[in-house]
Amino acid sequence: MPALWIAHVTVTDAESYGRYAELAGPAIAKHGGTFIARGGRFVQLEGKERPRNVVARFPSVEAAVDCYNSPEYQAALDHARDASERELMVVETSE
Question: How many domains does the chain have?
């Protein structure tokens, strides 16, 4: 079953986070991920608001988790750790 990678982000260092984004995109694509939302308009109805929201579609939960754990994504994540506050989850779709 396909899965969605859903990130809610507050960027605290735009330069470092930009480097993360440059590296994360190719890592996500390498694992079959495609972006369906990246920082677009949103309406916060509940919970903590984060100004940047990203959704990527993967072929499976396993593909998304493999991406997260990959050396390529972890190298990208090194730039985001001190440059953002974020939550990230993977959710299997019902398709």
Answer: 1
- The domain containing residue 63 runs over which residues? 3-92
> What is the CATH classification number for the domain harbouring 86?
3.30.70.100
**Burial profile 33-71: b = 16 or more Cβ within 10 angstroms, e = fewer:** beeeeeeeeeeeeeeeebebbbebbbeebebbeebbeee
Q: Give CA–CA dist 84/69, Å, rounded.
A: 19
Q: Are 12 and 83 in contact (CB under 8 A)?
A: yes
Tell me the pLDDT tens digit for each residue of 26-76: 999 999 999 999 989 999 999 999 999 999 999 999 999 999 999 999 999
What per-residue confidence (pLDDT) applies to 92? 97
